[in-house]
Design brief:
Layout lengths: L1 H32 L2 E6 L7 H16 L3 E6 L6 H14 L3 E4 L8 H9 L3 E5 L10 E4 L2 H13 L6 E7 L5 H14 L5 E8 L4 H14 L3 E6 L2 H13 L7 E5 L3 H8 L5 E4 L2 H16 L7 E3 L3 E4 L6 H7 L7
Parallel strand pairs: 1-2, 1-3, 3-4, 4-5, 5-11, 6-7, 6-8, 8-9, 9-10
Antiparallel strand pairs: 10-12
Helix pairs in contact: 2-10, 3-4, 5-6, 7-8
């Protein structure tokens, strides 16, 4: 009986060891199968709310779909070389997918195509490249959004008008498309003179200085269109400081706290609202799907909406204007 008892004890011990090995191995295998995604943005500058909201969308989707994500970005949207270096680094790490918001329409092409050559899935978010290397593009229809900004400015014009555009990074696809949309509406409109496009180089301060100089040189400027958050806020500051509220019309892009304040105070007439949270969320969801072999839409348009002081207090628009930021 003693020998039999010893045998049973040994068998139970071996069974427990086998179960432990199986559970450990299964969990290890599951961990290995967890999808890895590296997100490389134009910038991770915390002063630009657009990117912070997009990052919130990334983390929300990563948690929901059980995806490991790393979010990288340069200090400035103008640092193309640094972004290229980040993409090269990501390729060496061999994630399952890379989500890229390209700082330059042409210069990111070679490294983006290298992503594909290394068998890594590529999702473009916000701003594209001159290549069809991406498995999917998640973005605003920026030409259409530019037209919305142009139409908003045109609706304010009653006679002749001088209009200026302040851009952020002239080589970024989103800028190119937005400027194109604005020109499609305003360029040949009777009585409108386009003063040109001023490059703020991704900086609110640069945009402010450019607007100050322009408004002092041209005392008959009717309106300014800022093509993103920093350019809009910079132009708004200049209009306020020069006492030109109500005299110089401002149409902007995006919905930071400072822009909402400009809109509420009547310094800004309207802003074209994008949906950065959806961009971040859908970029991770799409990356997960293509890694698993599903076919994704080549273009996913997250839409845009013109917000004015008149409609900014509507319930649905309030939800878009005040996203949940920075509380992961």
């Amino acid at each position: 009986m003693a020998g039999s008892h010893k045998w049973v004890t040994t068998a139970v011990a071996l069974l427990l060891i086998a179960v432990a090995v199986f559970v450990y191995g299964h969990n290890g295998l599951s961990a290995k199968k967890k999808i890895e995604v590296t997100v490389i943005l134009k910038t991770i500058d915390t002063s630009v709310e657009f990117w912070q909201v997009l990052i919130d969308g990334v983390h929300e989707a990563a948690q929901e779909f059980n995806v490991n994500v790393q979010v990288w970005g340069t200090k400035s949207e103008t640092d193309v070389d640094e972004q290229i270096a980040l993409v090269e680094k990501a390729i060496l790490n061999k994630p399952d997918a890379i989500v890229l918001a390209a700082t330059d329409y042409e210069r990111l092409v070679p490294v983006a195509e290298k992503i594909k050559k290394n068998g890594i899935k590529l999702i473009i978010v916000d701003s594209g490249i001159k290549s069809d290397a991406a498995d999917s593009i998640v973005t605003t229809d920026n030409v259409s959004a530019g037209r919305e900004a142009g139409e908003a400015m045109k609706s304010l014009i009653k006679d002749k008008a001088k209009i200026a555009i302040i851009s952020y990074v002239k080589s970024a696809a989103s800028h190119i498309d937005r400027e194109k949309g604005v020109h499609e509406v305003l360029e040949n409109y009777p009585g409108i003179e386009m003063l040109g496009t001023y490059n703020g180089e991704g900086s609110e301060q640069n945009s402010y200085l450019l607007a100050m100089e322009m408004l002092q040189q041209h005392n008959d400027v009717f309106g300014i269109i800022g093509l993103n958050e920093p350019t809009t806020v910079g132009a708004g500051r200049a209009i306020q400081e020069l006492g030109l509220k109500g005299k110089v019309q401002l149409i902007g892009f995006d919905s930071s706290f400072n822009e909402i304040k400009l809109l509420d105070e009547g310094v800004m007439n309207a802003t074209v609202l994008q949906r950065p949270f959806q961009m971040g969320y859908l970029s991770i969801k799409t990356a997960m799907e293509v890694v698993k072999g599903k076919k994704a839409a080549k273009l996913i348009d997250t839409g845009s909406l013109l917000i004015t002081k008149k409609n900014m207090y509507e319930e649905e628009n309030q939800k878009l204007l005040f996203p949940f930021v920075g509380n992961e």
